[in-house]
Amino acid sequence: MTLALWCAIVMLPLQLCACRRHRNLAESMGYENTYAVLPAHIPEFDQDAETQAFTGTVSNAILAPEPTRLRSNKELVPWDLTLQEVVFYALSNAQVIRQSGQFLSPNNALLRSPDGVPTAYDTAIQSSGVLFGQRGYQAALSEFDTQFTTRMLWGNSTTVQNNSSGGINGGDVLSEDSAQFQAVLQRALLTGGQFGLSHTWNYSSNRMPSRLFPSNYEGFLRAEFRQPLWAGAGPRYTSIAGPISENIQGVTGVQQGMLISKINDLIAQIDYEIDVTNFLRDVEMQYWRLYLAYQTYEIERESLADANRILDIVQSRADAPGGDLSRVVEARDGVLQAEQRVLDALEGVYTNETQLRNLTNVQSDSDRTIRPIDVPVLADIQLDWGTSLSEALLRRPELRRQKKALQSAQLQLEAAENLDRPRIDFLASGQFNGMGDNLLGPSHTDGTTRSLGSAYGRLLAGRETGWNVGAEFSQPLGRRFAREQVKNNELRVIKAMDLLKAQEYEVLAELTAAFQKVDKTYLAMKKFEQVVDNAEDRLSAAEADYESNKDGRGFLDLDSLNRARDIYAQAHVQFAQSQIEYSMALTEIELRCGRLLDHHGVTLAFGDDQARSFMKNGVVPAIESNVPALQGDEPQPAPAEGSPPEPPAVPERVETSPEEILDADRALFEPANYEVEWARNDENQEDLEPISLDSFLNE
Length: 699
Prior knowledge:
With 699 residues, this protein is α+β, with helices and mostly antiparallel strands. It has a domain at 264-404 and 514-698: Outer membrane efflux proteins (OEP) (Up-down Bundle), CATH 1.20.1600. It contains 20 helices and ten strands. Strands 2-3-4-5-7-8 form a six-stranded antiparallel beta sheet. The protein has a two-stranded parallel ribbon with strand order 1-6. β3 (173-188) and β4 form a beta hairpin. α4 (83-92) crosses α9, α9 packs antiparallel against α12 and α11 packs across α14. The longest helix has 69 residues, at 480-548. The chain starts with a helix and ends with a helix.
């Protein structure tokens, strides 16, 4: 009991030092008052009841109203939104990043393989990864955490003695009590070495007359140190591959260190940037598709009004010379066809509006329908090839990602070459020994004049010591594994370099095609503008010829009038479509130059400092808009669950001349603006050279 009491007293402070209160993620990030996209607790989805397997939901989808359809007999209530507001809604609901091509697709990744769908949590999942090859930075740092191990064992042994010794006759039974206490602290060092501190006590008690004390304590306090001197030595190797003693040959490789984990985190951030960029492009394209659908609907409504007007004229002239029922039927057929085109155009509005809502994760609303109120860019934008090409090769996230992959491959090759050497480790250990009648107590005891009453007193006196110094050499004969590992990493570096070259040429080709498309779409837009003017003249001439009723023959044939009306409607639709294509061609330039996020005023924030600046959230990357605040903006309370957040207030519209609109369009795409942004972003670009260990650790 005395031994157990003293061991408990010794172990309690050590265990208290090793334990600490578990903190949640927000507290560990330094936030006391935070809000996060992740829920406060992991929700439970109970499927115990058989019916819940079919009716249980984790969203408000079950409360969605009936959608607006062609037979709903509801008048369209427009919900006017600018492109900026749609982007705001899209990014506010971008926890799961959708793709425009997956809607209604039989291979919809969101339904068939949801684990592969990009989300706002992917960067946090990577940075908190613990598996081999997917370790985050903190998991790599955990290799240097101090490991604490302790154990206590009690025992009893009863044996028959074969020989007479120590005052015990042969055949007598010897009963012995024993106990052992051990505590060990171990830590891996950045230099590649290991340091350990161990403390051990052994208790023994029996009735052998030859013993100085019937019961005694023997123990030691030992410090051990091992340091690689060749293979696996130094902070550089350890920061790339991790401590050499922790690596498992053929399993962990040379990619478990802090530098590789940091690069993996950066690659995950770049992947998220690529996903958000493509998402914004899809949102903008769908916005303009909906705009075109509304334009088509309005044009077809005008065409239907013209068809009804022609039918009224034909019916009013039914009793005129040459008039008969066939002319009325022909005019009525034109009305029926126009009505069908109106229904098709209205269905196009509903379909594109549904796709835009699905893409931006805005719930369906039976009371109002989204209506774009922005107009496409019409100005003749003069692009600078040199500036655009330089920006594309510098800012494209795909190239920056491959450069990081190449940097990782180069670092792994450096670590693999380090292992293609013999391993020589320096070994050293030293210890203080102790022995006494009691674990703690007075130094003097009966039976001896020496100070052997307290085992701890003898240990701390430091009179009995021990030490070892030496070296350990090991090397596989042939070194085939190490050489193959070097060869494999050399091939990976060569492959990464060739892929980077191919990507740069691919970016060049994409930018070339984008420049060519801008000219093609602009000239097509101008040409269709002339086609519209010509169609208007043709329709006016056909109407004048029909209404003039020359010699009573003008109203006898409606083909020319109906054809002129169809050409007029088709020309306006083509002109609107050419405007959309030209505007999207300019957006394609922004995408291929890697500046689409800046074009929309969007900044991605990763890490503690940036998250504090943009959004108090240490889990999901913050998406902040750089667009200047509109007048009248006031902080709004958080929206109710399932309802979209409110965008900034839209200022009152001011009548603007076409010249002012063109000047504003040109200002948006002025190359000088991007030269300033390019210089600013150039400071943030990472070099391809191996990063300095000192600068990395200082971060």
